[in-house]
Every structure is written in C-alpha cells, then in structure tokens.
Amino acid sequence: MSEILTPPLKTSTGRTLRTEEMVVNMGPQHPSTHGVLRLELVVDGEIVVDVIPHIGYLHRCFEKHSEAMTNYQQVIPYCDRLDYLASMNMDWGYALAVEKLLAIQVPERVEYIRVIMAELQRIASHLIALGTYGLDVGAFTPFLFMFRDRERILDLFEMTCGARLLYNYIWVGGVSHDLPPGFIDKARAFCKYFRPNIKECNDLLTFNEIFIKRTANVGVLPREVAIAYACSGPMLRGSGVDFDLRRDDPYGIYNKFQWNVVTGKGEVGTVGDCWDRYMVRVREMEQSLDIIEQALDQIPDGDVQSSIPKRIRPNPGDVYVRTESPRGEIGFYIISDGSQTPYRVKARSPAFVNLSVCPEICRGSMIADVVAIVGSIDIVLGEIDR
Amino acid sequence: MTPQEISEKLKAKFSDAVVETKLEGVLDPYLKIQPARLLEAAAFLCDEDDLQFDYLMCLSGVDYSKGILGVVYHCYSMTKGHKITIKVDVPAEKPDVPSVASVWPTANWHEREAYDLFGIRFAGHPDLRRILLPEDWDGYPLRKDYKVPEFYQGMKVPY
Amino acid sequence: MEQIFRTLTENDFLIYFLMSVIPLLWVVPYALFAVWLERKVSAHMQDRLGPMRVGGWHGWAQTVADILKLIQKEDIVPAAADKKLHFLAPWVVFIGSYAAFATIPFSSAYIGSNISIGLFYVIAVSAIVVVGILMAGWSSNNKWSLFGAMRAAAQIVSYEIPTALALLAVVMVAGTLNLQEINQHQAGWFWNWYLFRKFPFVFIAFIIYFVASLAETNRTPFDIPEAESELVAGYHTEYSGMKFALFFLAEYANMFAVSAIGSTLFLGGWNSPFGDLLGGPVWGAFWFLSKGMFFVFVQMWLRWTLPRLRVDQLMYVSWKVLTPWAFACILGVGFWMMM
C-alpha cells in the first residue's frame, strides 16, 4: 500500500494549518448562519482558532442598478431588498438622503407615519432576531411565539400598503398610502397585546439558566474594539456605549417623544457579551412600544402625498445620511450630478460592518459559541451583500 | 468643533497636502487630500485631542469618470460629536491609495469592497482580496466604463 | 408467556425467537405513535396545531404516511463513505436500544428473559449505542458528522456513570438485580414504591437518573450530538430513507427503554398504584406502559422548553454535579440501611 502524502493544508487566506488544526466549513447552507454566509472555521478540537467569513453569495448589484434608474423613486424597491427584514427603515434612510439633497420638508403627518412604521418594523425585526437566536441556542418554542406576535405587525403593514415584507412604502417626499381607517385602533390594540408577551418571552428564554450559561461571557466585545470597528446599533449599545442615532444624530421627530436609550450593563456576565446584546434588543422593543403609543396619540391630520415631487432633480452634490435601523447605522451616500438619475448610491450597511468584528470576538471560543456570537450580531445577508 | 476649526487644524499640519476645501454651500463639508499623506492625516484625525475622529462611518469608492477614481471617508467623533469628510482622488490607470486599516480597523472590509468594485489598490492593507464578487471575477463593475463579460466560467452572464 | 409458547412448539429456538419479537410488537407501533405525539405536543406548546389532515382525526396517520415515504426513498450513500460501516451503523444503534427490552418486565406474566442480573445487563447493553454512533459519524466522511459522533460518544459514556450510580442506590435497597423481583418488592399501594423509600435519597437518585437518561437518549437539553442548529443533523446527516428511519426508531425505542427502567425501578413497574385494585397480568401491562409513556411525554415536554447546553457545560454537569450527588445518595442509603 503506497503512502499517501498530503501537502501542508492552507486556509483560503493562505495561513498554513498546524497538525492538530482542522478547517471546518460552516455554510453557505447551514441552519444557523442566517442566510448564505460561509464561515471558514479553523478549529483545534472544539476550540476555534480563526474565523474567516466569506460573503457575496447574495450580491445583487444594488449600487450598479441604482445608477441605471431613470428616477430616484425607482430605487426605493431596491432599498427594500437590502435588509429585507427592516424594509421600512431602509426606505426611510434612502428617502431622507434624497430629501436632504432636494432640501424639501415633508408634512408633519408624514413624519409621524414614518416613525410609527419604523418603530413597528423595529419590533418585527427584533422579534425575528430574538426568535432565531433562541433557535440557534436550541430553544425551539420562543421562535414560534415571537413569529406569532410578528404576524400581528405584518397584518398592520398589509392593511396599509398591501405587502408583508417588502413595502415600497416610504417614498421620497412622503409615503405611498395614507393610514387606512381603523389602523390607529388596531395599532393601539397591538401595543396593548404585545407588552405582556415580552414578559412571557423573558420568563421563557431570557432568564433561563441554560440560556444564560450559553450566552453570558460569550463573545465579549469591549467598548474600544466596538468603536474602532465602527459597530452600531445593539452591538454597540450592548458594549455599554450610550449612543443612538435617533437621539444623538437626530432625524425625523424622535425628539418629540419620551423614550430611553438602552445599553448593556453586564447584568449576568461581562459588559458586551451576547446576553447583553440580546437584552438590549428585548428592551428596545419596549421602548419602541412607548414611541408608537405616543405617536398614535399625537398624530395630526394632513395630506401625505402633497410634498412628493413630480420630478426629482437634485442639484449636483453629495450627502451622507445615516439612520438607526434595527441592526445599526444604515447610511446612504448619494452623489447627484444634477440629472434625474443618481450618479452614485452607496449603502453603508450595519450588518456588513458588524460582521467584520466577528473574527476578533470569536477567537478562542468553541464552535457552539460561534453560532451564539453570529446570532447575537444579527446579520441579514441582504444588506451585507447588497 | 465647527468644520472651519477642523479644517484650520488640518491645514495647519498638512498645508501642502490639502488640495481642495469646501465648507460652504455643501451639505457635507469636506477636505480633499493628496493620497501620499493620507495615512498621516488619518492618524492625526484619530489621535489629536481636539479632533478624536475615532469612528469611521463610511468609506466609499467613487468613479468620477474622466479617468479619475476617488475614495470618500466620512469620519465622526463619538466623544466630540463632530463630523468631517475627507476625499482622495487618484488616476484610474494607477489607483493607489494608502490603507487606513491600521488607524480605523473597520476600514479593512470597506477597502476590500472598494478594491473589489472599483479596482482601487490600498497599499498596506493586510488582506486585499475581493469580498463581494467571486475571487476569479474579471473587471471592476462599478466603474462607469465597465463592460459586462460574456461568459464567466462557462456560464452566460447577461440574461 | 413462555409456557404458552411451549404448548405450541417444542423447538427452543423458535420459542425464544417468538419471545424476543413481542417487545417489537410494542416498540414499532409505539414509535409511530410517539413521533406523532411529539409533533402534537410540540405544536400545542408552540401555539399551533401540528398534523391535522392525514387520516382524518388530528392527522393520526401522519407517521404511517412518513414511514411509507421513507421506505420508498432512495438510499443515498456519500461517494467517499465507508460503505460497510455506513450500512451497519444504524443496525448497531437499533440493536443496542432494542436489546435492553430483553430483561424489562412488561407485566407479571411477561418478561423476555428472567435473568438474575437483569439491570446490569440493561445498563451494559445500552452502551453499544455508542459504537453505532461512532460508526455512523466516521463512515459518513463528513466533518460535521464526525463532530456529532465524538460529542455523542463523550456524552453517553460520561452519563452512564451517574445513571449506574443512581440505579445502584435502588439496588442497595432492593437487594437484587433481577427486574422482575424488584417489581414484586414494590407490590401494594403507591407508597410502597422505591421512590418513597429511604426518603429523600432514592428520590434524589431518581432525579439524577432522569436527567442522566435525557443525556443517554440525546434529548434536549443534551442534544448536542444532533444539534440541529450547529451540525445540521450531527451523526445522521448523511443518512436517508430506511436507514434514517432506523435511527429514529432506535432513538424512540431508547427513550421508552430508559422510561421503562425508570418506572420499573422507582415507580413500581407493572404494579397498580392502588394495591390489588386494577391489578393482575393484563392490567399490569397497562400500568407499565402508561408509566413509561408518561416519562416519554415529560421528555418531550422538556425538549420543547429548554435550550441546549454546550458540550463542556454538559460534561461539567455530568462529572461535577450529577456524579457527586449520586455518590452522596449511595452513601445516604448505605448508612440508613446499616442503622
């Protein structure tokens, strides 16, 4: 029998493996990578020595397509499909950037509607994040409870614009449809229904001994690393940084409402571990409920389509506008050359930047922890790959 | 600090490297810097006590056509709360820009994306390879003069 | 039961063969029922309905349809897999699970093999499952299956120890390893059950046994080997069709086997809880099966409630929590009996 000699193995970045190391591939088809993400794990037994993320499986040329549109409004459906679990926030970010270039103001009713939709979307997106996170850790039941509650939000959206996931609702200069009759009552009923359910999920999952063991002190992201890697959203706030774009780089009418910014405090482990990020999302849902209820009380009447420009032809110039999506800072850098077609639309997606810190915080943990950490980053491949 | 003050401080140290300043009449005030001194300027922006631009919001590649590529850096300071934009222009035949990944680690992936889609080479980048497109893709799609290839590994590309 | 068969035929081999098939008559329909039950239990816990259509009333024939589907499925074996091991692995796992039924008394009239070391035999033979799992993980030529298999081997072997120690506490009280005799000692009303004797030591031993048996059967919170969200399906990722069905059958058979042992040793087995009321060989079978099914239901209940432990935490629980407490129970029972 001839001896089979194998050359020294290398990872895709060119690092040569030691004898006891093994390259295991997680994805692109994998129940826990939340989409088509390939994680090349270099493992020594169960300990992960290195993580090399490979993305691009869902690249759909968003930026190139925007340059081919004949109208700035035509880019909105593409924005929906960036982070398809938070479409309202994507639309709003883009619409805000174009409105800044055009220097137009939208009526107050539109602002209120946008806030209500964005916050409802934030709750829906967090429900998915938390439910699938429970699934990653092995708890099958909270996933279904959270999706049941999310269905109510999707019913509200369907009532308004006819779509459940990709809305094409927030347009440059206004919104596509006004709130239908009965929406405000139904939204109030939802808020009343949902608040006790947050407590139910907390009892079932958040303070469960086993869940805490799986997530506390796992994937600790220190403050300085978070800022250096430009993390945003619950990832940043989970590390104890008190920063929320809705308050610190204000847009819309968030300053009219009473609400708090939630940060991680290391209650059951270290500040910046997976549990903190999880808890920030849970508490943010409560804050969003507060904002929605206040907005529903204060919303004025008005015409929502009066300020939608017939022709969008901004002056030449460029602007970078960032808004707070459920995953973090979604930024749109738009360059206009004075024509009706955008010259350059760059989408700075929060999950793209948040995922880049994954190798740093995964080193030294176990394979099961990698799953927990990637789940706590809360990625959506749509916006990572655009 | 206001954009005026920031631009004064930057010009005081890099007077010869600042090519253009536009603080009025634009939505985002910016300074255009020579690529050669970019790394120094980035370190200055990040470390200087008054400036403390520790958060790189966005790094975008741009194709200005007429044979010029550019990189735009949007910087923000978490401690001070001020913003500034830095722009860098390079010729399309030789698009070499120093990498700022050592100053702002987040630039690592952003620069890979700019390289992937525009072909801008970042000198000193720890791991410059394509990020969104397959490793063996030909061409830089977001350039204005990009032609979609007919075939990729035997598959027809335009549908 | 043996006498009934002896009247039919004189051939020893045939008699013993028929006796060994009888548990299969329970295990296979039970497995079909248990899969349906699991789907219904999980559904109702998750605020949904589960199978509703196949067969009419609440989809009772769903598993029958699934089995028919699995039987006619193509058997896919990975090209670089070790064919012999790949074929044998599900059989070894099933044999390990099923052989345990030999010495478990289903009623006062039926026990497969009335040997004096019945309990010892059960614990020993159910460890064969580890070999099967390792064969499955290795032969699949898949790194993830290998991970699942290694974890399963570590887990099952580690949890054998608290299981055996907890059962040892009962054996000390009973004074015999023969399961039929243990059952007979618990005759009478339910306070005669071993669970309530030498309280609280045997009670704690029961809890240790139950937790350890969850790990033996790879159920959540100890289902790392088949951790769906990490390893797709762990050691049986590369199995399809009938071989996969065999793994499933083995898992449910194992669940019932550990439940049966638990109810035999702690809860009186085939004894009626009301003494002579509703007693006798036929009622005995009913009580035995219900107690077993009750624990199967509790195992399902826990699966859909709790998240899963990480591998090192699992090992910690076994070696540093359950084993010391099991030793403490043995000491407690021992001292009690000496006084």
- How large is the count of helical segments of chain B? 3
**Pair with the most extensive interface?**
A-B, 33 and 31 residues
The stretches of 5 or more residues of chain B where confidence is low (pLDDT under 50) are none
Kindly report the name of the CATH homologous superfamily of chain B: NADH:ubiquinone oxidoreductase Nqo5 subunit
Sum up the overall morphology of chain B in one term: elongated
Distance, first to last CA of chain C: 41 Å
Largest sheet of chain B: 5 strands, mixed
Compute the number of strand runs of chain B: 9
Oligomer: heterotrimer
Spatial strand sequence of the major β-sheet of chain B: 1-2-5-4-3
Taking all Cα atoms into account, the compactness measure Rg of chain B is: 17 Å
CATH names the topology of chain B as: Beta Polymerase, domain 2
Strand percentage of chain B lies at: 25-35%
Order of helices and strands of chain C: HHHHEEHHHHHHHHH
Number of domains of chain C: 1
What is the gyration radius of chain C calculated from CA atoms?
Answer: 20 Å
CATH architecture of chain B: 2-Layer Sandwich
Largest sheet of chain C: 2 strands, antiparallel
